[in-house]
What we know:
Blueprint: E1 2-5, H1 11-19, E2 23-26, H2 28-32, H3 38-44, E3 50-53, H4 60-64, E4 70-73, H5 84-89, E5 94-95, H6 102-117, H7 120-129, H8 154-157, E6 167-171, H9 175-186, E7 190-194, H10 200-205, E8 209-210, H11 213-219, E9 222-225, H12 239-244, E10 249-253, H13 262-270, E11 274-279, E12 299-301, H14 312-328, H15 347-351, E13 362-363, H16 370-376, H17 385-404
Helix pairs in contact: 1-14, 6-9
Amino acid sequence: MKIFITADFSEEGMKRLTDEGHDVSYCCWGATHDICTEDQLIDKLQGFDVLFVGYEPVPERVLKSSSLKIICSIRGGPRANIDVDFATKMNIPVIYTLGREAVPVADFTMGQIISLVRQIVKTDRELRSGKFTAPAQSYGSEKDVIWDMSLEGPWESRKGIELGGKTIGLVGFGTVGQEVAKRAVAFGMKVIAYDPFQRDAAFVQHRVEKVTLDDLCKRADIISIHARGTEKNKGMIGEKEFGLMKQGVYFINNARAAIVDEKAFREAIYNGKVAGAALDVFHQEPVRIDDPFLKMDNIVVTPHIAGAGLEVVYRHSDMLCDDFFALLKGEMPKAIINPEAIGDITRFKEFAKDVKPGGGTRIECTTCSVAANAAELQAPASINSELVARITEEVIKQVKLRMSQ
C-alpha cells in the first residue's frame, strides 16, 4: 500500500512499514515542520491509500478528494483535526494513539506541583533578579549559613509544604491520570479521583479512591485536571467548584483550558482561594503577552509542552505500526476512534494481498524542500558540529534503550 506520512515519525517506524512491503512518502510537518494546508494536502494525497497524520487538517473536502482506505493519527484526540464522522461515512477507520504522552505529562505534572509548593520557579526568578544575593564583587561568607536568616530572608519567607500526607484530586482518570497517581502514591500522597466514565477496577488497581466532583473539590489540597476536553465538560470547574475548594488550594491544568471557567478561575487566583497554579494550557493560545497571569509569582506558566517528551515519537510510531499491521491481518486495532467504520474486517486483508515483505520503498516528496529545511536547522557555526552530533546520537541511544526496557 502507498502510505503518506505528515506526522513526526521515527526512522525505525518507517523501516517497519517498508520492510513489510509498503511504499512510504514522508512529507509536510513531520519532515519540514511546515503544516500543509487543505489544498496542499488534497494535491499530495493523490494516489495514496493510507495517511499517517499529525496536525494537518483533514476535513470533509480533503477526504472526498482522496482515495484513502485508512487514517492513522499520532494524536490521542484525532477529532481535533480530522472529520471523524465523515471518515466513518466513507468507511475509513481512524486509528489513534491512546496514552502516547501519558508518561511525559505525568512527569511534568509532578514537576509543576513541586515547583509550586516549594516555590522553586519563584525563588529562581528572584535570585536571578538580585534578591537574596550578595553585592557585586563580594563573595559573601564561607560559613555554613551564609544567607539572610531574618523573617524576610529565603529560609523563613520561602518555606513550602511537604507532599507526603497531602491529598491530590485528579479530575479525569484515564492514561495520564493513572500515571500521575502512580507518582503521587510514591510521594506518600492520598489520591482521590473523579471520572464517571472510568471502570472501578482502574481505581482499585492504582489504590485511588473514586469520588464525586464536589467531594474532590472539598477534600483536595492539590487539584490536577486530566480530562479530555469536550463540549459537555466545558466550564465544568466553575464558580461553584472553586467555592467548595479549600482555602489555599493548588491548581494544575495540563489538559484543556476550556474545562475550567476562565472568569471563575481568575477570580479564585486574585482573591487568594487558589494559592498557586501551574498552567500549560490557556483559554486563548498563544497566551497574550499582557495577560496578568504572566506577571504573578504564584503561577507557573509553560507553552503547552507537557507532552513534549523525546520518547514520544518512538512510542507513537510503534503504536500506529502495531495497530496498522493488525488491521491488515484482519484483527481489530487496540485504539480506533470509529470502529463502526470497519464493517467487514476481512476487506483489509484484501487491501494488503499484493504487498510483498521487503519490497517497500521510500518515495521522495518533490514538493517539500526537506533539504533546505534541514540546512536551516543546522547548528550555528559557533557550535562544534561534531559535539552536537555526538550529543544527539547519545540522546537518541538513551531514548531507545528506555523504550526497549
